[in-house]
Every structure is written in structure tokens, then in C-alpha cells.
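user: can you give me the structure for this one chain? C-alpha cells are fine.
assistant: on it. calling the predictor now.
[tool input]
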Amino acid sequence: MSVTFNNQTAIVTGAASGIGKAIAFKLLEKGVKLYAFDLDGDNLTGLFGSISNATAIRVDVTDQEAVNKAVANILQAEGSIEILVNCVGITGITNIKSHEVDYSNLKTVFDVNFMSCFFTSKAVLPSMVDKKYGRVLHLASIAGKEGNAGMLAYSTSKAAVICMAKVQGSEYAETGITVNAMAPAVIRTPLVDKMPDAQVKYMTDKIPMKRCGSLDEAANLATYIVSPENSFTTGFTFDLSGGRATY
């Protein structure tokens, strides 16, 4: 099935690298008008600054006022926003037990991983309700389902993202808007490429397919989730784990 988009505008956060970058370029291939958000303004401009259908916006998505201003400017320019993809994320300090977790690090991880999704969706959803159409995708993680030991902040923040998708999916189910999450296991990124082979093997051994997912696989699934074709699935977390997630 060929996924099609007609004159749609998208915001992708975390678009300067990793999965966010891959999704942003995949949407551009489909003819979507892209607004790429990231705190790394230089890299963002280098990637999208010369693309006519893309606009790079340096924004701290943990700052609600900055998010509201950026979204308002896009709505003024475009009239509507059909797609929101939230890909910003950090792991924070890992390999520590829960009693060793520092509050400031926990708060930082939640601000980046959860609050950013809340701020952007809160800003965009009213215009989607007015238009009676919208697609929202929050990037979660297999850790949000399984709770990785030594990763309290990351795991619980991603669990919160999954629950928010369920809540929002239910709340807007009759408005023409779908809100879903995507839960990757290990995706082959430059960060993974720099890891020791033994560490990558440890992670992939937990995956029935015994390999990492690719950025292209992540972008292809995300593109379907935010497409018009995905019209009867909402409040759902899509598996991207090579069979590791079974629920």
C-alpha cells in the first residue's frame, strides 16, 4: 500500500539526529511540509536549511512558552498542522539502582521525554480538533513496557509516554484525530555503532530476530502511523522490537 499525504504540515521534534531525523526525511519524501524542531540549531539548519519544503526551528521543547510560540507561528503561516511526531529523548544516568537515582536527573529525563510530548501535543491538538483531523505519534520505548533495570528515569518516563498516548487516544477518538505511540527496542543509530560489539550483542540477544532495527524500518512504520491510512487505530503502542514485545 502506498502511503499518501495531501498538502499536509508536520512538526517533528528531535529532528536533528537519530529516529527523528529519519522520520523527518521520510515525511519530506512523501511531500509533507516539514517543521523540524531541535535544540541543536546548527545541525538542524545544516540538514534542512536548504530544503524548500522544510523549516528548521531551534526550540527547547521542555519550555512550554517556547513551544507555544513556535506552534502559533506555524499555525499563522500554514493555517493547520496535521501531523505531530515527538522524537526528543534522553536516557539520563543509567546503570544505577533506584535508591541511587538523583532527583535532578530524574526531573531532567521526565522534562525531556514526557513533558516535551505533553507541551507539543497540548499546543497542537486544539487546531486539530477544529479541523476534525490530526495524527500524533509519541516515541516511547520497549523500556517503557518492560522497565529496564538500572534505568528508572528513562523506563518510567517512557511508560508515562505510553499511558499519555492511551489517554489522548481515548479522549480524541471521535474527533478524527489518532494518537499513538511507538516502542522501539535497539535501533541501529550512530550511537549504537560506537558501542562495543559485546554490548550490542547483549542487547540484541534479547530480541528474537537477533538484530537491531534500522532507521528506515522506524521511519517506515512512523510514516504509516501518521498517515491518513491509519484511521482506525488510536491509543495504541506499535511494536518495533523484532518480536521482543509481545503485548
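assistant: here you go. The first helix runs from residue 18 to 29. The domain at 9-187+215-237 is CATH 3.40.50.720 (Rossmann fold).
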